[in-house]
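Whiteboard transcription, Tuesday session. T.W. wrote the structure tokens on the left side:
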């Protein structure tokens, strides 16, 4: 496993801290046209993802890519988790991975 360029776990609130860097976020797809996807982060903020294939609405997708700005991620890798996903656990993971346990994740 290549760890030379790790991706930070983020939600919508934490994304602005990583502009220009690799991030990993889960979004619930609201609309997708195969080029641009509009979704909702696990902390209920709107995010835009470029580079995802067309994903069914309401599915949860984990996206790894580069944070372009406060609301935009350019996707490199994605995993479709389907319609059921525990957003509270993921949101807590993001907080822990950017708080007191940051050294364990990056």
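and on the right, the sequence the group agreed on:
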């Amino acid at each position: 496993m290549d760890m030379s360029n790790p991706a930070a776990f983020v939600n919508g609130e934490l994304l602005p801290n990583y502009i220009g860097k690799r991030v990993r976020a889960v979004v619930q797809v609201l609309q997708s046209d195969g080029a641009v996807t509009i979704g909702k982060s696990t902390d209920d903020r709107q995010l835009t993802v470029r580079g995802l294939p067309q994903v069914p609405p309401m599915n949860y997708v984990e996206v790894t890519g580069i944070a372009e700005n406060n609301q935009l991620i350019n996707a490199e890798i994605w995993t479709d988790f389907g319609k059921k996903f525990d957003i509270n656990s993921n949101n807590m993971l993001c907080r822990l991975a950017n708080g007191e346990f940051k050294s364990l994740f990056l």
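Someone added at the bottom: The longest helix spans residues 87-97.
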